[in-house]
Write a structure and sequence with these properties.
Helix content of chain A: 25-40%
Radius of gyration of chain A: 20 Å
CATH topology of chain A: Rossmann fold
Oligomer: homodimer
Largest sheet of chain A: 7 strands, parallel
Order of helices and strands of chain A: EHEHHEHEHHEEEHEEHEEHEEHEHH
Largest interface: A-B, 53 and 53 residues
Number of strands of chain A: 14
Distance between the termini of chain A: 49 Å
Chain lengths: 396, 396
């Protein structure tokens, strides 16, 4: 299968590109290297020493004998080059990770809010228009987020995989309607993924594009069976206040003896998935596209759920590092339950990596090994959801 | 009240600006003149001889003694100037008409699709971010569209004003939830208004912006009590295949003896409102904003509904001009019922202009008077929803 991986230089995109290449697909990475540029802006680096794309691809060729192509291209700004690329490559599928993906960064300031909307909405729409213009039957697999659903909206019902059947009152009695789960975005970043969903619904119906949207939980872990094959293939690990995600940040904090930073009560329950399962899910989604003319297929790409304070306690218990309760810079419920439907990937063969299997390995092989690269002034979250919300000082 | 009217040079924006000035508000029009630029692109002109903005404003000053300000500015491209303008003017309210507003134009080709999304989403988001950045309590009134709801989705229930209470099944029995009416966009243009709604919900909650969204039907008529005061104040009248709307196009066709062009069966039922009522609705919306922290207030801005073929028969009966049934270039249901809740504006004092009052006046004062300016090669709709859909030849 010929596959374009948009955003193939990023945390999920890079290991997915290698996985798809490893199982025999002809992969072309498309990326504008924006994630590396944001590192420069934020004056922070991946904890792991990621290599430039050219070196990554040479290393992959050395260890696998396989070639992955790379095109540097901005999805939002360079439509004509994108359309030409699709015409030239004639991809069977496009995997779309090419969006600004951090909630705190998206709330950082006016420029970041505007960049997130402008980049994500225009980029995704350009991909849809370019597929339509090509006349090809290219399938699209897009990385969404569990954050489109909000937390607690469904009461005791599990969050369904994208669609919800509701009863609508009418003068002739209730009628059943299947709707896209109502959008409850918690940040400008999450908002863009709710906008993407509406664009997907329209282009699936009008242009008959075959689209799969993957509502992913918080990804943890770093390496996959491909990225461990050579240190030059190592995946990125973000721990800073804007791009770091909660579980990996705890692991890194544990490794350097920094207090585990819990924002608010820690009563937030969130969904998680290991990066090894992410790349498998993408493969499964590629192998099971919807039919032409069908509505977008939506999967919840999560394997377990945990309360943030429980994770902190677990890691504190394993490592002896204390927990620090900090002010919450986000507007969100202090406490929530979370019950997520996730039958589809399990039915299609996903065998999840659990926290209990992977946590110690991650602390040992990544967080401790690269601890010397950490900048402790970058750990505490400083982007606030509203002007004037309290943040904590550096803890070390 | 200090009011910015974004898109104040357009078909709804211009008469609204004059109405608000006439009742004593301090009005600043903000417009990039994009609608006039698209006329150049499409090689078509308003049937009525609209004047340049400078002449319009001089004429308004002559007849009313009032000054309306004008700032030429692109909402999507010139964020910094927009933010500075809001800081300088400190508006009590912003009325936002500044979006590409034609469904057929939005489906014309890849460039028009991309322009519609890029312009409308970025422009609206920039307005929200600029209000937030200003720290002011500026209220926002936005022109939406009835097209966000789709046609026929609600069964026998009237389309509610924005929000719908549904029953969601849970293990503990059904729970009631109020949701934004599910989006059912029929074109890329309508899609952008469904994206706007989600942005409004987020910024109303997170930034406590007071937002009103007006889901308007198809506007007919041309003049208001202000625009008739001098021919230099005349409002635009679009009749071409991309920007013309169905009822005004029938009136113009009747005036020049061109067959009344019904696309498909004419069984489409649509909602209508006279331009005189549009400007009154905007005034009512400005006078009744939601409170800070409330969800966006949504009104259905329509006064009556009609089936397209019934309108054609009515006008054919009045004028003797024949009806021509042409292929439908849109993807839409051939026939639909339409029942729209519209209690809010009526309760707040709107006294609608009905078709029976205004039709003959419109044919006499506008369509017949300016018939000599019509270009009959521009009448038939040529933008198709999918490549290869059939369109009709010119009929004259």
């Amino acid at each position: 299968m010929k596959v374009l991986v948009l955003g193939g230089d990023g945390f999920c995109g890079w290991p997915t590109s290698l996985h798809l290449s490893d199982i025999g697909h002809d992969v072309t990475i498309v990326d504008n290297l924006s994630r590396r540029a944001i590192d420069l802006e934020l004056e922070v680096e991946s904890l792991t020493p990621i290599r430039p794309m050219g070196e990554r691809l040479r290393a992959w060729h050395e260890v696998s004998g396989k070639d992955v192509n790379f095109v540097r291209l901005d999805l939002a700004e360079e439509y004509d080059r994108l359309a030409a690329l699709i015409r030239d490559v004639q991809p069977d599928a496009i995997v779309h990770f090419g969006e600004q993906r951090a909630a705190p960064y998206s709330m950082r300031d006016e420029a970041a809010k505007r960049y997130t909307v402008d980049n994500n909405v225009r980029g995704t729409h350009n991909v849809l228009v370019a597929i339509s213009e090509s006349g090809l039957d290219t399938a699209l697999v897009h990385l969404g987020t569990m954050g489109v659903y909000g937390y607690g909206w469904s009461g005791s019902a599990p969050i369904p995989e994208g669609y919800l059947t509701v009863k609508v009152p009418t003068p002739d009695g209730d009628i059943e309607r299947e709707i896209l789960h109502p959008a409850n975005a918690g940040s400008v970043y999450h908002l863009t993924k709710t906008l993407d969903q509406l664009m997907f619904g329209f282009y699936a119906a009008n242009d008959q594009i075959r689209i799969t949207d993957l509502h992913q939980g918080i990804v943890w872990g770093t390496q996959t069976p491909q990225t461990v094959r050579d240190e030059r293939l190592i995946n990125r690990f973000d721990y800073d206040g804007d791009y770091g995600t909660v579980l990996n940040r705890f692991l890194m904090q544990a490794a350097i003896g920094h207090p585990l930073t819990v924002h608010g009560t820690g009563g937030q329950t969130r969904a998680f998935i290991h990066i090894r399962d992410t790349v498998r899910c993408i493969q499964i989604a590629l192998e099971n596209p919807p039919a032409k003319g069908e509505k977008p297929k939506i999967f919840n790409q999560v394997t377990e759920t945990h309360r943030v304070r429980d994770l902190a306690q677990m890691i504190s218990g394993m490592t002896g590092v204390e927990v620090a309760n900090l002010p919450n810079p986000r507007r969100e419920a202090a406490e929530n339950e979370l019950n997520v439907a996730r039958e589809q990937f399990l039915a299609l063969g996903l065998d999840p990596t659990t926290l209990s299997e992977g946590l110690l390995e991650e602390i040992r092989d990544i967080a401790q090994r690269y601890a010397g690269r950490a900048d402790t002034t970058k750990i505490v979250a400083r982007s606030t959801w509203r002007r004037g919300m309290e943040t904590a000082p550096d803890l070390r």
